[in-house]
Amino acid sequence: MKEPKLIEAIGVDKQFGDTKVLRNCSLAVDVGETVVLIGPSGSGKSTFLRCLNLLEPPTGGDVFFEGRNITSDLRHADRIRRDIGMVFQNFELFQHLTAAENIMLAPMRVLGLCTADAHDLALDLLKKVHIPERSDHYPDELSGGQQQRVAIARALAMRPKMMLYDEPTSALDPEMIREVLDVMAELSADGMTSICVTHEMGFARRAADRIIFMEDGAIIENANAADFFGGLVNERTQRFLDQIL
Ligand code: ADP
Ligand code: MG
């Protein structure tokens, strides 16, 4: 039997009131794939990510995770958010908790880990994102790049099956972008299935298996990396690339 895709959106629509934000968006992602999602501001990238993990319920179409239709029953939402880690532009760390405590919170509350095990897990994950020495620091004592790496570690603490990144470096000073992208690329190289909204095309070149271009709520292009970087893109995608590069 054919392996089901890890996640598959089929004909996803999203409407806020009368405004159509997503139109018939379909995307299938295999286990281990890294997909980079690009497109102009307002094209629906964040909404699409949020529909994939049911932070927003789609108003049409279906999302399958490991072959199971998760949109048919929104009771799946908690489980899905555990299986899909998400990282946002503005880190969204708890300011009153240290780096380690931010990471420990969900594994203790949701997975039932004891403090000692959660602390060990936090230190392992802080090593993975290359800042073990920052474990006892509060977010306001960390650089933006360090905070975002704590946010990635926090997402990984739930042992997700895939990661969604929504413009993870766009709030960072240029000198910190690289350290965050490096961690994301390392995770991808280790086999973490990922969808990354980012316009860092150096990262896309290095880590992406596929590039998706969205415009006006629709997926205009879904190209494998070799074709994309070989210049085999449609005219609208090329026009957008000319603007950002
Ligand atoms: P992108 O991430 O590509 O910049 P978004 O997904 O954030 O795009 O937004 C797509 C469109 O949907 C925008 O026009 C935005 O104003 C609209 N939108 C997003 N969230 C909401 C919401 N909660 N209510 C109404 N409109 C929204
Ligand atoms: Mg967005």
TrEMBL record:
Membrane topology for this entry?
A: Peripheral membrane protein
As for subcellular location, the record says:
Cell membrane
Matching InterPro entries: AAA+_ATPase, ABC_ATPase_HisP-typ, ABC_transporter-like_ATP-bd, ABC_transporter-like_CS, MetN_ABC_transporter-like, P-loop_NTPase
Could you tell me one molecular function GO term of this UniProt entry? ATP hydrolysis activity
Any Gene Ontology CC annotation: plasma membrane
ABC transporter domain location, by residue?
Answer: 7-241
Q: Does the keyword Plastid apply?
A: no
Pfam families hit by this protein: ABC_tran (PF00005)
Q: Does the keyword Iron apply?
A: no
| Chief localization | membrane
What keyword terms does UniProt attach to this protein? Amino-acid transport, ATP-binding, Cell membrane, Membrane, Nucleotide-binding, Transport
Family designation: Belongs to the ABC transporter superfamily.
Protein name (record)? ABC transporter
